[in-house]
Design brief:
It comes from Flavobacterium arundinis. By secondary structure, the chain is mainly β. The protein has helices at about 85-90, 105-110; strands at about 1-5, 20, 25, 45-50, 55-60, 70-75, 80, 95-100, 120-125, 150-155, 170-175, 180-185. The strands form two sheets. It has a ten-stranded antiparallel β-sheet. The protein has a two-stranded antiparallel ribbon with strand order 3-7. A hairpin with a 2-residue loop joins strand 4 (about 45-50) and strand 5. The longest helix has 6 residues, at about 105-110. It is globular.
């Protein structure tokens, strides 16, 4: 079974998996927005709701590429927050997500057989990654174990506001024990 992430307007964007828009934080806290070594704020891509909280994905805006930071926020008592430089740190669109379970055995087949517009498929949740260049499953920084695969992401339905994976896919991993997460992409 494959769980496809399908672009769909959401009435409850704060509580659900979503892409673009504003990230969330624990109410009453003042988190630091992730930054690049060049001093720029990283661009917020979206959040995936998991059993360890919301996993917020950020990506670099400059030539300082590498593993993109993931911020984990408890799933209780949350509110939106904004960066200082919204033009750089936020994408112009916001996508809600509907999770559709399919009977397909792998992500590529499920995506290929999706009856709607294929650009509306934003990725998959759990299952097995469909690597473009070979297995790069990261190890947790705290326990050194292979991390759990959480999601594979596509760039999005509108090329003008898409996440920039260089035409490829993004991959989110986490570790429940260490409560850590990592994001990488292949093109």
């Amino acid at each position: 079974m494959i769980q496809l992430l399908i672009n769909e307007p959401s009435e409850n964007i704060i509580d659900d998996t979503s892409f673009g828009g504003l990230p969330v934080k624990e109410a009453g806290t003042v988190p630091l927005w992730p930054g690049c070594s060049c001093g720029a704020e990283l661009q917020y891509q979206g959040k995936i709701k998991t059993d360890i909280g919301y996993e917020l994905i950020f990506m670099y805006n400059c030539d300082d590429w590498g593993d993109s930071p993931v911020v984990i926020v408890d799933a209780e008592n949350i509110e939106f927050y904004s960066p200082e430089n919204a033009e750089v740190a936020l994408r112009a669109t916001e996508y809600g997500v509907k999770i559709i379970e399919t009977d397909e055995e792998d992500y590529e087949t499920a995506r290929e057989n999706w009856e709607g517009n294929r650009r509306q498929v934003l990725g998959q949740l759990y299952g097995e990654p469909s690597w473009l260049q070979g297995d790069e499953t990261p190890k947790c920084s705290c326990c050194n174990k292979k991390m759990r695969f959480v999601a594979q992401l596509e760039e999005g339905p509108d090329h003008k506001t898409a996440m920039n994976f260089g035409g490829g896919s993004g991959y989110l991993f986490d570790c429940k024990e260490g409560r850590t997460a990592k994001f990488l992409f292949q093109c």
